[in-house]
Amino acid sequence: PPPVPAAALRDREAADRSSPGREAEAGGGAVPGRPRTKFSAAQLQELERSFREQRYIGASEKRRLAAVLNLSQSQIKTWFQNRRMKFKRQTQDAR
């Protein structure tokens, strides 16, 4: 086969990246599964209070918060993971 010009290869690669069907992989659309949790102001207040005391949550505190806030332990764990990343971004931006 004849050689393919570099510009044609770049165009083809760009088309492959933006092709339909890859949106979930690339973060372009909602991933099927649990819908996004909307935390109430009271839930956020308690989660933030707990985060200020300790950035990493233990199993017993996770169970307690889940029961008190009527959330699953997975939701508590995910909230703490996301909050640590937000904290990390904020502290890096402050430099």
Automatic annotation (TrEMBL):
InterPro entries: HD (IPR001356), HD_metazoa (IPR020479), Homeobox_CS (IPR017970), Homeobox_TF (IPR050848), Homeodomain-like_sf (IPR009057). One of its GO terms (molecular function) is DNA binding. SUPFAM superfamilies: Homeodomain-like (SSF46689). GO terms for cellular component: nucleus. Pfam families: Homeodomain. The keyword Chaperone does not apply. Residues 30-90 form the Homeobox domain. PROSITE patterns: HOMEOBOX_1, HOMEOBOX_2. It is found in: Nucleus. The keyword Nucleus applies. Keywords: DNA-binding, Homeobox, Nucleus. Its main location: nucleus. It comes from the Eukaryota. Residues 32-91 bind DNA. Residues 1-37 are annotated as: Disordered. This is VEX1 protein. It comes from Herpetotheres cachinnans. The gene is Vex1.
